[in-house]
């Protein structure tokens, strides 16, 4: 996800901005840029790729004396990772950097174009700086123009804006994306995390959603809630969490909103990156992926078939490659990949293309090999995932598949206005359901102590909850090194139940809204054979040895997302209790670029 830095003061601005951006590299990015305004001159530098490319571009630039500056690392969401799309985004005499997504940028852009603005980039961000200059036509008050600009925007943002007309001020706004302001002996600093100001500043303010302001070198002390700044960088990169995996579990509700933003509302789903007519004449989907992405595909199959009534076949990329599968031109080949570089998935994609199939990638990394190879792309917008065990990428893949289901169903005229509204409110509730409640986390911390031994785990569920059970088992295996299997609960008595005894731990996913009673019967069968049973549900199940309660939900998708969080936390806490390196589990790599 993008990173923001800013500085007001007399030290070497370029150096401070670039050092700050380097501290934010861990968030992931595909281009970077800075703008420095000093002695009446505004200089902007941008480069695609690593920060060293940006450093090369501005190697000869120095700015002496007082000035202001902003910087940015961009993770492409609207428009390719090119220099013109990199931030700062430029208008006539102002520059802006922005994290997040402006949902109504197309309306604003159209309006500004009618007023004579000529847009240079494909970004949503450019509307901010052009809108600001438009409002300045009617007022000399820079802050008033900025306030009006922010009031026009819909979406999530952290914004820093500078203008030649106001050479000592940085305008800032926060809504949904993180932004801090900090102060040290040599000036005032901005950042999207405190990691980039540690070493420079000793006081900090964590801005709240809705904060809009105008900062100069003197106004920091007038802010509310000034706190001392934590000085441990590694801790700061993890936003205070013990592991990146934990941080990524906690940020799922935020990234899911980004996944949805600008694409879905009560009227339906708009996927601007999918060409019109892409699904015309298509009678079947093939979803192909590996590992966690494969599990998202498997859950997606149930959702796609249920909502869009389209036959969906899910294949494991490593198997598909050599299976000589029969492919038909009326099928669309969908690959799912967090990294976009998984060798098996990439080769399967090439194979499908060679057979003349249309291809669609659901991917987290723009410009990755899989994205470049596919005919159409839906980015998951999870931001960089650092924990080797995938969490937030899975959540966003699932959301994209759900949106795709609604999208295809709409094209087939399967949903009326009321259905569309229901889908949307269910999505919004599902996102909310991924917000980690302290009570749930505490419960799993305590419970994990009881699940450190035994001869294995069965994770069981039905329908969408079956692949979720597979994913819960995979998470536990990866980080705890304990043996765990996922099973459809109805299949237990066809063999696996032979393993049941008190040292077999069963984690049962018991929803209220989809086949709950059926799973309860399967739980009883296991309980009768003495398996130790932990049920994840919003309702008590009498035969359970342990209960993990999720909040009552209004539908099964909301339950799906709640249970997903509980399973991720369970794996995390068991692994921590066992003393494992949660973020870098043994034998695993984040991106599997070999067969
Ligand atoms: C599990 C995990 C792996 C990946 C798999 C595919 O936590 O991360 O199973 O899901 O290697 O990777 P991507 O999605 O990058 O293609």
UniProtKB/TrEMBL annotation:
- Which cell locations does it reside in? Cytoplasm
GO biological process terms, semicolon-separated: carbohydrate metabolic process; fructose 6-phosphate metabolic process; protein N-linked glycosylation; UDP-N-acetylglucosamine metabolic process
User: Where does it mainly reside?
Assistant: cytoplasm
- Alphabetically ordered keywords of this record: Aminotransferase, Cytoplasm, Glutamine amidotransferase, Repeat, Transferase
All copies of domain Glutamine amidotransferase type-2, residue ranges:
2-218
EC annotation from Swiss-Prot or TrEMBL: 2.6.1.16
Main EC class of this protein? transferase
**Top-level taxon of origin:** Bacteria
Which Gene Ontology molecular-function terms are recorded?
A: carbohydrate derivative binding; glutamine-fructose-6-phosphate transaminase (isomerizing) activity
Which reaction(s) does its UniProt entry say it catalyses? Answer: D-fructose 6-phosphate + L-glutamine = D-glucosamine 6-phosphate + L-glutamate
| Annotated SIS domain residues | 274-414, 447-585
Assembly and partners are described as: Homodimer.
Q: What does this protein do?
A: Catalyzes the first step in hexosamine metabolism, converting fructose-6P into glucosamine-6P using glutamine as a nitrogen source.
Q: What is this protein called?
A: Glutamine--fructose-6-phosphate aminotransferase [isomerizing]
Give the species this sequence originates from.
Helicobacter cappadocius
């Amino acid at each position: 996800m993008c990173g923001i830095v800013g500085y007001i003061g007399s030290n070497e601005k370029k150096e401070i901005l670039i050092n700050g951006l380097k501290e934010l590299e861990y968030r992931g990015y595909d281009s970077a840029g800075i703008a420095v305004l000093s002695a009446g001159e505004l200089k902007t530098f941008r480069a695609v790729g690593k920060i060293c490319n940006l450093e090369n571009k501005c190697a000869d630039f120095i700015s002496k004396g007082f000035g202001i500056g902003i910087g940015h690392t961009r993770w492409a969401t609207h428009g390719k990772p090119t220099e013109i799309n990199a931030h700062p985004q430029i208008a006539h005499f102002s520059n802006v950097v922005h994290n997040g997504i402006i949902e109504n940028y197309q309306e604003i852009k159209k309006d500004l174009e009618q007023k004579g603005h000529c847009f240079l980039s494909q970004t949503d961000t450019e509307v901010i700086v052009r809108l600001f200059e438009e409002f300045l036509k009617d007022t000399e008050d820079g802050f008033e123009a900025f306030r009006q600009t922010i009031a026009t925007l819909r979406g999530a943002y952290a914004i820093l804006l500078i203008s030649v007309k106001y050479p000592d001020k940085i305008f800032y706004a926060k809504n949904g994306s993180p932004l801090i302001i900090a102060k040290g002996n040599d000036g005032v600093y901005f950042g999207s995390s405190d990691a980039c100001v540690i070493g420079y500043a000793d006081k900090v303010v964590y801005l709240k959603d809705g904060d809009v302001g105008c900062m100069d070198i003197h106004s920091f002390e007038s802010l509310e809630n000034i706190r001392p700044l934590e000085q441990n960088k590694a801790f700061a990169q993890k936003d205070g969490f013990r592991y990146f995996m934990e941080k990524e579990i906690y940020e799922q509700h935020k990234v899911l909103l980004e996944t949805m933003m600008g694409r879905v509302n009560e009227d339906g789903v708009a996927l601007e990156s999918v060409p019109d007519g892409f699904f015309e004449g298509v009678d079947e989907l093939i979803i192909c992926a590996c590992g966690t992405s494969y599990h998202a595909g498997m859950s997606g199959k149930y959702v796609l078939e249920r909502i869009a009534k389209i036959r969906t076949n899910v294949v494991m990329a490593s198997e598909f490659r050599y299976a000589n599968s029969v492919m038909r031109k009326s099928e669309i080949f969908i690959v799912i990949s967090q990294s976009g570089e998984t060798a098996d998935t990439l080769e399967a994609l090439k194979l499908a293309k060679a057979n003349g199939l249309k291809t669609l990638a659901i991917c987290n990394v723009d410009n990755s090999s899989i994205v470049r190879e596919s005919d159409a792309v839906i980015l998951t917008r999870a931001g960089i995932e650092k924990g080797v065990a995938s969490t937030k990428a899975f959540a966003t893949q699932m959301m994209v598949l759900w949106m795709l289901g609604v999208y295809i169903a709409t094209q087939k005229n399967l949903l009326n206005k009321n259905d569309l509204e229901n889908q949307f409110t269910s999505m919004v509730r599902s996102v909310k359901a991924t917000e980690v409640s302290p009570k749930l986390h505490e419960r799993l911390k305590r419970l994990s102590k009881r699940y450190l031994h035994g001869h294995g785990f069965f994770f069981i569920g039905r329908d969408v909850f079956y692949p979720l059970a597979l994913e819960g088992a995979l998470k536990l295996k990866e980080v705890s090194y304990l043996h765990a299997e996922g099973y459809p609960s109805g299949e237990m008595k066809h063999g696996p139940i032979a393993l049941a005894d008190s040292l077999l731990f069963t984690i049962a996913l018991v929803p209220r809204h989809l086949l709950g009673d059926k799973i309860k019967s399967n739980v009883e069968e296991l309980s009768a054979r003495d398996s130790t049973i932990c049920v994840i549900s919003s309702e008590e199940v009498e035969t359970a040895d342990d209960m993990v309660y999720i909040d009552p939900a209004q539908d099964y998708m909301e339950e799906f997302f709640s249970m997903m969080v509980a399973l991720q936390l369970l794996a995390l806490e068991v692994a921590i209790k066992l003393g494992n390196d949660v973020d870098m589990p043994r034998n695993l790599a984040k991106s599997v670029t070999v067969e």
